[in-house]
Amino acid sequence: MNGLDKLLKPKSIAVIGASDNPQRAGNVVIRNLLSGRFHGPIMPVTPKYDAVAGVLAYPTIQSLPRTPDLAVVCTNAHRNVAIIEELGKKGVKVAVVLAAGMNSLPSYSTTKPNAGEAEVIESEESRMFAMAQRYGMRIVGPNSMGLILPWLNLNASFSPISANKGNIAFISQSAAVCTTILDWAKNKKIGFSTFLSLGDACDINFAELLDTLCRDSKTEAILLYVDSVKDARRFMSAARAAARNRRILVVKSGRTQAGSMAAQIHTGGDAGLDAVYDAAIRRSGMLRVHNTHELFAAVETLAHSVPLRGERLAILTNGGGPAIMAVDALSDRGGKLASLSEDTINQLSDILPSCWSHSNPIDIIGDADITRYEKAVRILLDSDDFDALLIMHSPSAIADGNETAKRLVHLLQSHPRTRKFNILTNWAGENEAISARQVFADAGYPAYRTPESAISAFMHLVEYRRNQKQLIETPVSFGETKSSPKLVNTMIKELLAQNIYQMETHDVRPLLESYGFNTLPTWIANDPAEAAHIAEQIGYPVAVKLRSPDIRHKSEIHGVMLHLRDAAEVANGAQAILDRVSLNYPSARIDGLLVQQMANRAGAQELRIAVHHDAIFGPVILLGEDAVEWDIHKDAAVAIPPLNTALARYMVINAIKTGKIRQRRQPEQLDIPALCQLLVQISQLIIDCPEIAALDIHPLLVSGNELTVIDASMELKPFNGDKQARLAIRPYPKEHEQSVSLKDGRSILLRPILPEDEPKHAEFVSKVSVDDLYRRFFSDVGEFNHEALANFTQIDYDREMAFVATTNLVNEDGSEEEVIIGVTRALSDPYNEEAEFAILVRSDLKGLGLGRILMEKIIDYCHKRGLQRLTGMTMPSNRGMIMLAQKVGFHVDIQMADGIVEMLLLLQPSDNS
Asked: Which residues are CB-contacts of 212 (< 8 A; sequence separation ≥ 6)?
């Protein structure tokens, strides 16, 4: 994978800047490599010493006897550009650069500027990256601590602590966090499959590593420590793909504005809104943890837990107080306490004192001995009342903590149903409890020091499970939305041609109405007298508002007068607005006054919806309560377009749960489906109109299913680029829709698949014969469940494409229904070089030319995407597919011994073809 194999599976290593000085990084790296007992050649490079740590050294890179797979560069930052050039000439394909500060180290351009031009100043980091690109070399860092690959006995880092073998991959931008995690994990006997410090990530980044590690057999979970992300589209695509195969947790620094700026300085990335990162992490199916305390709990949970089957938690304790603290923590995080069945309560009553709690938490009383613990745990394991069990122990003279832990471990390991549940433990205390917690850790059961830590760890699993479920929720289709993108684009071009960039309610209204928004009728008055005349015509009460392109916030000069009830109040209010403008902003342009009839606010809720351009993730949608002081860092829920109804609903529910929208006593006043539809319309408006740099609807009046825009402002900017490229997630590519005809004259529509297609796709599969399904999937697939269907229909258009062939069937009642009759799909590698295709046609519609239509459609798409190769695999018995592939130019390799047929089509010449 473009050099990553040399990084993650190196067979030889050179250390550039190796040293015999124990205070130098070049010495620490050599000693770590030797102590780790790496099996391949280790080649120190230094002109100062004949040998380093007893290993023969080489004076220059060119004098190396062979080209190393991996080079660790331990030299001073100002030397690294030249060193990367030497490594490139030697043929080295990947280098880890340890030096810090290269992104802030200026380096003047070597090209002489033309007359009148300023001399270009580049950073040493950008020059180093450009040099690496020239030789096709990949870079980790700069400012990296190095990497540790325990399964290869490789420690190519300057960490003072090594890593044990395990199943967690840890990728971090912070070297300090790396060493902290290693020290803690060593104590807990937690191991890693890969431990990599990215540093400033000028080249190799989170996205590429996620793509690689999610296929690594040694990696079961991935933990990321993120300061900043540079390529949002690539990061989200990789994260969405990886999260389907591996559990991924993210620690994102810079939660506050000050912290965000510190993170920007640390790695040189842009400072995006923390709430947007939060939305991106959830949208990708990952889970975010917020601090070091949660980070440690998360690592321990990942190391020992099995996938959570449900959210019901049972708590067994010998102390009521700690259990209550656990319940409080569970309630605060939105967790669910399991309910005990009558049968379980009766069984527990037979072995526990009469004063036991008779409910969950199961308090077996402070005088509980080891036998009582064992009997209670056995009864619980035999039940189906819970999904996870937290076993708690407070220091006791009767039940020795260490011995109790050993006996319970034996019970858990021998009980046949233990693997059905998540088992967590909390042995409270320090001196005596440490060894007991280690007993559980050694046996593979997470052990926590406090009740809150145990609950935090459990809720990591719960929240991760919720994110995964929401990721595959089937959206509801509400049919065609009212939108006129061509009309709106024409209006925007006319406004930009007139140099109009800031728009207020009256100007924004026709654009919003073109997308189906309800707006409040608005009239323009040139002076107070005309405002009073308009008010007489439309009826009272009315509102009068200032219209000025130079005053962004009307509240600055009290530029809004509400509830005016007669002509005199209107005239006086309008004049007062103009007087305040004259006094405070005498040079401001005034484009008249806006007059609106007052909306009926009785029982209605006022919300605020805005579109903000994030420095990392591009356009995002914000939702919250309407307020004069609106801090987007605190007061808004965030969603990343494109939205469908499921994603919009998730945004609204999240806004309610986090208090961004207050839930009223009469919840029917907030019509969630209606609000979701409006959010989807806003998402579509953003996608269709890249010139909209910002949009602020304040307030949106919500009364039942009536949503009315009272006030709105919009900012426009000229846009000439790819309107989809600015989005963090590629939206539905409507441009690929195509109408074609079958041999029988029937008209069909070829279009990209939609998440809303899940029911249609299920119905389509039911019309495909068992034999045809077997040829397509190489196995008896049976009936696809929701998760499988979601994977087919909820695709990432940036890496995958599925075209469905649809036609309309007339039902008995005369209504028309769109049905899917064929599907073709292609899944590309992360580098957009090769894709694998598949085609499936309804079994009763063969012989109409649909297979060839679908084949040509996917070939044309892959060719336009710039892919080099299209591959496929089928069975020798699938003669129809084999003949079709040959007709359209595939090279077909029939391997009868293996029972497979491989198909290859070269779409365009490759560099080595």
From this structure: 1, 4, 8
Parallel, antiparallel or unpaired: strands 816-828 and 834-841: antiparallel
Q: Mind listing the pLDDT tens digit for each residue in 279-321?
A: 999 999 998 988 777 877 777 777 776 778 899 999 999 999 9
Report pTM.
0.88
3-state DSSP call for residue 719? coil
Strands 70-73 and 13-16: parallel
| 3-state secondary structure at position 527 | coil
CB 680 within 8 A of CB 515: no
Distance CA 16, CA 88 (A): 13
pLDDT at 1 over 70: no
Q: Are 163 and 152 spatial neighbours (Cβ–Cβ below 8 Å)?
A: no
The closest alpha carbon to 481, from 445, 439, 454, 512, belongs to: 512
Task: Give the closest residue to 97 by CA, choosing from 80, 77, 73, 78.
Answer: 73
* Burial profile 38-67: b = 16 or more Cβ within 10 angstroms, e = fewer: bebebbbbbeebeebbebebbeebeebeee
Q: Residue ranges of the alpha helices (H) in 821-902?
A: 850-864, 879-887
- Cβ 407 vs Cβ 371: under 8 Å: no
DSSP conformation class of 667: G
CA–CA gap between residue 408 and residue 415 (Å, rounded): 10
Task: Name the one residue in this structure whose structure tokens are 């560069």.
Answer: 73
Residue type, 703: S
Give the Cα-Cα-Cα angle 705, 709, 712 (nearest 5 degrees): 155
CA atoms of 635 and 644, how far apart (whole Å): 23
| Percent of the chain that is helix, strand, coil (3-state, to 5) | 40, 25, 40
Write out the DSSP string of 411-429. HHHH-TTGGGSEEEEEE--
Are residues 64 and 191 in contact, defined by beta-carbon separation less than 8 angstroms? no
∠ CA(662), CA(667), CA(672), 5° rounding? Answer: 85
Give dist(CA 107, CA 265) in Å, integer.
Answer: 18
Question: Which pLDDT value is given to residue 908?
Answer: 79
Q: How far is CA 435 from CA 318, 429, 753, in A?
A: 19, 11, 55
Counting DSSP H helices and E strands in the chain, the numbers are 27, 42
Q: Which of 364, 352, 419, 350 is nearest to 389 (CA)?
A: 419
